[in-house]
Amino acid sequence: MTTILLVIHLIIAIALVGIILLQRSEGGGLGIGGSSGSGGGGGLFTTKETANLLTRTTAILATCFMATSLTLAILANQSAEPTSILDAEEPASTPFEATMPEAPLEAMPPAAPSAPLGE
User: Fold this and answer.
1) Are 57 and 19 contacting, i.e. CB atoms less than 8 angstroms apart?
2) Can you list the alpha helix ranges (DSSP code H) found in 80-116?
3) Dist CA 56 CA 92 (whole Å)
4) pLDDT value, residue 92
5) What angle do CA 73, 9, 11 make, to 5 degrees?
6) pTM of the model
7) Residue 63 — pLDDT band, cuts 50, 70, 90?
8) Cβ count within 10 A of residue 86
9) Distance between CA 36 and CA 33 in Å, rounded?
């Protein structure tokens, strides 16, 4: 169930990115988009109809994306077992446990002082 929903979620995400990239910029703040007309005529859709279609498609895909996101989050939460670090019986093992000695090393006697170098 989760895998199927995840695949659907990814397809919706890719479609949403594609639909957003197809839309025309209305900002014009950077000198792009703006109000320059595309000319041409006799097309299947007018510019306004295409904008309305893309806007509605974006809204539908965004709603589906949010719904699948919430559903995946709920499914992930239900499958996880509740755990607490306070209920742990054994301390977590460290990667250094294998190199640490089990018993303390015996104390070695101090080294004898060496002769001074100048003599």
Assistant:
1) yes
2) none
3) 52
4) 54
5) 170
6) 0.54
7) very high
8) 5
9) 7
CA angle, 37 as apex, 18 and 29 as ends, to 5°?
70
Domain boundaries defined on the chain: 1-24+48-78
Alpha carbons 56 and 50: distance in angstroms, whole number: 10
CB 40 within 8 A of CB 93: no
CA 89 – CA 34 distance, rounded (Å): 65
Cβ–Cβ < 8 Å for 56, 19: no
Q: How many residues are listed for the chain in this entry? A: 119
Structure tokens at 94: 């460290």
Burial class (CB in 10 A: 0-12, 13-18, 19+), 59: exposed
Task: Report residue 104's pLDDT band, with 50, 70 and 90 as the boundaries.
Answer: low
Give the pair of three-digit tokens for residue 117: 């170098």
Q: Is there a contact between 33 and 25 (Cβ–Cβ < 8 Å)?
A: yes
Handedness of CA 48, 50, 51, 55 (dihedral sign): positive
